[in-house]
Design a protein that fits this description.
- This protein is of the alpha/beta class and about 180 residues long.
- The protein contains 8 helices and 4 strands, in the order αβααααβαβαβα.
- The longest helix has 22 residues.
């Protein structure tokens, strides 16, 4: 979320955020909470005793402490939405990927969205939950193919102009130990 926020709001880039791990509403709550920490809201945060801005979990669960915090949320959300989705100076479009989506399926969605504005950054949360276009004998081979498909997408998107693609990657402790041997 930090990458998407910084690129869209601070650098004025168009970001396509594809999520399969977290529901779209939660990602949006995280982005708005992050936006509530912007310096332009400093006086409001100070007045409301919210030095770190709004809490995304409280936003997501509808558990803001009082009506002033709710009003602050509305102000921040309106400011966030002032750029619109893929319109104007920077924006962040959050898409919910269906279970088992492939890189090609995601690419097709992004190409359709590109008719409004071409993304400058694609964030995929996260690659290991996607599927390969073809089944493979092992999970390792499957993940390897997903990574390769994502790399090809990054390079040849938009008739070879490419697009940066970032994705967090998670390792369990056993895999990390195995890698360091």
């Amino acid at each position: 979320c930090s990458w998407a926020y910084y690129a869209s709001q601070m650098q004025g880039l168009h970001v396509y955020f594809a999520t399969s791990e977290t529901i779209r509403q939660t990602v949006r709550a995280r982005l708005v909470a992050r936006h509530s920490r912007h310096e332009k809201f400093f006086n409001t945060r100070e007045r409301l005793s919210l030095p770190n801005g709004l809490d995304s979990q409280r936003i997501d669960r509808g558990l803001l402490e009082n009506s002033e915090h709710e009003s602050f949320l509305a102000e921040v959300a309106l400011d966030w939405g002032a750029n619109g989705e893929f319109v104007g100076d920077g924006s962040c479009f959050v898409a919910q990927m269906p279970h088992g989506e492939t890189i090609q399926g995601l690419r097709n969605q992004i190409e359709v969205r590109s008719r409004v504005a071409r993304p400058d950054l694609v964030v995929i949360d996260y690659l290991a939950l996607m599927s390969s276009a073809r089944r493979h004998a092992t999970t390792r081979e499957e993940l390897s193919m997903i990574i390769k498909d994502a790399a090809h997408f990054a390079v040849d998107f938009d008739k070879g102009n490419g697009v940066p693609v970032v994705s967090p990657w998670q390792l369990n402790r056993e895999s990390q130990k195995e890698m360091t041997r």
